[in-house]
Amino acid sequence: MIEFFKNLNEDIACVFRRDPAARTKWEVMTTYPGVHAVMIHRISHALWKRNWRYTARFLSFMGRMLTQIDIHPGAAIGRHFFIDHGCGVVIGETAIIGDEVTLYHGVTLGGTSWNPGKRHPTLEDGVVVGAGAKILGPITVGSRARIGANSVVIQDVPCNMTVVGIPGKVVLPVGRRQIDKNGIDLDHHLMPDPVGKAISCLLDRIDTLEKQVADLGKIDASMNSSLYGDNRPEKLH
After folding, report:
1. CATH of the domain at 150
2. Cα 127 from chain centroid (whole Å)
3. pTM for the complete prediction?
């Protein structure tokens, strides 16, 4: 029981670090469904580990009715876990979540198989998952990684990286953005830009063709000078 209240205080405290809208501890305790869902899960998870499986599932079911957040009691969740807004979040049975993790509304930590065993994702410490993102299968999202809103992630994500898109693509970290010689930012704020890359290729091709045309003009002028000297015929109109 002491451990439960310790975790509850930590879960409430982490809200103030990540949500500027939070004003008072009482407000967080009474109006934040993400806090309610985590509080209920910590109780149901303790029951699950003691093989009170039906009681744990029923408590989890009641928590879903109250908060619209579905966390299986078998999921392992670390300290300072924060679900912002929360509506529509789903966390599967074999999911493992580290410390200091943040999920936004509509996130799914789901499975891709009906086989028993590990079938849900592992999120290491400090991961942030944007609204509507889907992380599927027994994959690992490395510490301090960022998952963009509405991304669908089905492969491991290295530490400190950002993933965006469907399917999710790993983007270069800050400080390694690609700026080509034409001045085009190929990774607009770390977002991959295939259109920008295509335009860059076209500009390179135009530059090459212009040089070739200029070289042909010089060759033509040189040949005319050699053939006609100062008696070069006038252009026909």
Report:
1. 2.160.10.10
2. 9
3. 0.67
Question: Using CA atoms, how far apart are residues 204 and 212, in angstroms rounded to an integer?
Answer: 13
Question: Which position has the token pair 């198989």?
Answer: 113
Same domain for 104 and 10?
yes
Give the CA distances from residue 8 to residues 40, 64, 98, 180, in Å, rounded to whole numbers and listed in that order: 10, 18, 16, 50
Tally of CB atoms within 10 A around 17: 12
Mean pLDDT of the chain: 81
Other C-beta atoms closer than 10 Å to the C-beta of 32 total 24
Cβ-based neighbours of 167, under 8 Å, separated by 6 or more: 152, 153, 154, 155
189 shares a domain with 128: no
Q: Which of 171, 202, 221 is at the close of a domain?
A: 171
> Range of 200's domain?
174-237
Together in a domain, 114 and 209: no
pLDDT in tens, 124-176: 998 999 888 999 989 999 888 888 888 899 888 888 888 888 887 887 664 45
- In this structure, the answer to whether residues 179 and 213 fall within a common structural domain is yes
Q: What are phi and psi of 203, to 5 degrees?
A: -65, -40
The whole-number pLDDT of residue 186 equals 44
